[in-house]
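Supplementary Note 3. Input sequence used for the single-chain structure prediction.
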Amino acid sequence: MTEPTATYLARPEDVQRVLLLYSGGLDTSVMLKWIQDEYQAEVVALTVNLGQPGEDYDVVRGKALSLGAVEAHVVDAREEFAREYVVPAIRANAIYGLGYPLFTALGRPLIAKLAVELARQTGCDTIAHGCTGKGNDQVRIESTVATLAPELKVIAPVRSWKMGRNEEAAYAREHGIPVKGGAEVAPYSIDDNLWGRSSEGRWIEDLSVAPQEDVFQLVTRPELAPDEPETIEIEFEAGVPVALDGTRLGLVELLDRVAAAGMRHGVGIVDHIEDRIVGLKVRDIYEVPAAAILLPAHAELERLVGTIHQNQFKTMLDQKWAYLVYAGLWWEPLRSDLDAYMLAANSQVTGRIGVKLFKGSARVVTRQSPYAVYDAQLASFAESGGLFSQEASPGFIELWSLQSRMAWQVRNSR
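The predicted structure, written as discrete structure tokens, is reproduced below.
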């Protein structure tokens, strides 16, 4: 028998009871039946609610039980996801590759952590997921399991069974597995939570094709958005969004309401070419209305209260934080170290930011903070005086430009 390529992968003979990360979609529904037949193993299903719109979790749970799961659990993790994962991302202005606000990358370590906890509670020896061998999610989930629970093993049927989507649909029909939307295979592979939504597949893989209308199920297309702009005001305390238009809200509700405003005005559509950590370039269509509003608002407030040196330095750390999370290294100690800095750097990121929403754009238009490093009189062309004497400027200029002037003269004197 061939040895597994990694120590955390399961040998078939060791698989007795499997915790399956179950979404209710085609892949994981086929997996639920396939694992029972292939391994002669019991399956415990886990579905995690991270704010996916339009899900009926009673239906999902019932489907898992009808397909033979010995137990089916639904965990509402929206609050934990918002507080422990999205908030740190906001404090870190977390964007990967100039466009991706990491919503899937943030959700996967939490889902895997919850799987580890339930696997231990229910006596499972193995965790199964539906990730392919081409994506980043396999890295995020498996590295989490291997880190938090070395005693547990992993199986990834989609990576090994060599079935495409059409073959999976045929398997489902053969075994009486209900398929969402009937016999037709869904045109797109969708992943979503309260921080965003991604679509892959179909025409998206053809770089010569412009985005098609049927992909946008979350955000209004900008050309169909209202003809009148709307300005919303977001209040932050220590880098955390706490109020919308003067009303204090719980974090999940605030994220939902900001997302709703963005969706209404066509904000948050991203057509993105992404460098995956497995070496591929892929195209994704993202719909990220909440992130497209809150991240620029937070970054603007942070710039207002920080010095030039703080702002320049933090930008470098933001990029490193985003990369670690994207690359599936949520449990890397450096990320925790960076979180400590992000918390300190955000201690005075308190104030209100007005954002104007109009036909796909979200533009900061007002700023206010008690900690603003800003002097209106000093900044005014109409006023003199302030924190320094303007007569001192020539001496500063002479010293500031000294090395650059000398270097230019030396290099251009011959």
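The chain has a mean pLDDT of 93. The longest helix spans residues 103-121.
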